[in-house]
Amino acid sequence: MNAGSKFSRDNRAYWLGRNHRILDWLLYERSSIICLQLQAWPYQQSGDGLTAVQKDYFRVLNLRDLLFNDCGDRVAQLLHVELVPPYSQYDAHQQVLIVNTHLLFPHDSTLSIVRLQQVYKILQDWNGRKRGHVYKFLWSQEFVSSYDTAHPYTDPDAHKWVSHRNHRGNICAVDFIWLLNPNRYRKLLKTSWSEAVFGMFRYLLRRASLTAEDAFAFLKTDNDGDHIHSWASLNLTGHCNGLTTKEIKDLWVQADTDGNGLLDYKEFQQRIWNQNWSEQRDAADGEAKGNQEQTVGFSVKNAVLFPPEVEKGMWPENYSLSDHARLTVVFSPIRMPCSQLVS
Fold it and tell me: Where is the EF-hand domain (predicted)?
C-alpha cells in the first residue's frame, strides 16, 4: 500500500492518522512477511519500499537494495531468509528469496520497455495489467500469480478483480504476489526477454491493423540491417525509456536463426508474428519429472483482496486507508523435485 492521494500528503494530521491506522492493521494481521510501498513526509527522498519478516519464523541471511539508476528511478529490495525451527519442517536450512519492488506505472506506451528492463534486472506491486507484457514475461519464466492460482477463473466474475485506484480515478489490477517454485523448468532469461520485446513489437504492428505480409513489408522498407527506424517509428527506441541500439542488434541476432544477417519472411513468422510464447504455457509441461533431488516449495492455499468489493471489480467510495487494496496470500510448504533451465 502507499501514501495515496495528494491531500493525504499535504495534510500532515491526516497523513499521520492514516499511517497509524495502517500500522494497527498490520499488527492485527500479524503476517509472517510484509511488503510495503512507502511515502515519506514531506516529499522526502526515501526508499520506495519496506520488507518485514517475523523473527519467530525467519532469520535474515542477507539484504540487498537494487537501484534502477540505468532503467528508471525505482528501487527493489532483495531479502534472503531462512526458516527457523520448528517451522522448517522439511529442511533444517530451508531458504527463501523475497523481492519487493514497485515498477513505473505504465502511463503511456513509452514506459513498456523500461518496465520490462526493470523486471529483467531483478528477476508485489508490478504496476501493470493482469495480461500486460510484464505479466507475460514473468509467466514465461514459470512464475505464477498467487491470487490467480487461488482463484481459477471458473467464476465469470473472477477475472474482474482490481487492486488500485490511480490518481486519475481509474481502477485497475496492478498488485501481485508472484511465486516461483523450484520444480519448474525455466527458460533462459535472455530468451524470455527477447520473446517479451518481440511480443510488444507484434502487438504494436497488429494494433495498426497490419497483416503479416504488410508488417514484413514495413520492416523491409527499412534499409538499416537492424531496422532501427522501424523500432523508432513504433516508439520503442529513440527516447530515454526505449531500447538501446545494442539491445535492438541483439534482438535481431536472435531473430536471424540462420545467421545470414537478414531477416527473411519465414524467420519473421516464427520469431515475431506467430510466437505465442506466454498464452500457451502448459502447466504440466513445466514440472520437473523423474528421479531428481527433492527440495521444498510452496503451494498457494488462499489469496484474499481487501476490501472485498475489489474482488468483483468495484472500488468502495468509503475506503480511504490506501489507494491500493490489501493482498494477503497463505502459502504451505510442500515437497517437490528440483528443476533445471531450458533454452
Answer: 243-278
CA 326 – CA 321 distance, rounded (Å): 10
Between CA 226 and CA 233, with CA 228 as vertex, the angle to 5 degrees is: 140
3-state percent helix, strand, coil for the chain, nearest multiple of 5: 35, 25, 45
d(CA 307, CA 17): 19
Residue 281, classed as helix, strand or coil, is coil
pLDDT of residue 328: 93
DSSP state of 332: E
The cell for 324 is: 491500493
CA separation for the pair 71, 62 (Å, rounded): 24
CA distance 159 to 313: 8
Domains: count for the chain = 2
Cell digits for 242?
526505449
Domain containing 288 equals 6-186+284-342
In this structure, are strands 171-172 and 164-165 parallel, antiparallel, or unpaired?
Answer: antiparallel
Residue 101 has phi, psi (to 5 degrees) of -150, 170
Residue range 200-220, pLDDT digits in tens? 888 888 888 888 888 888 877
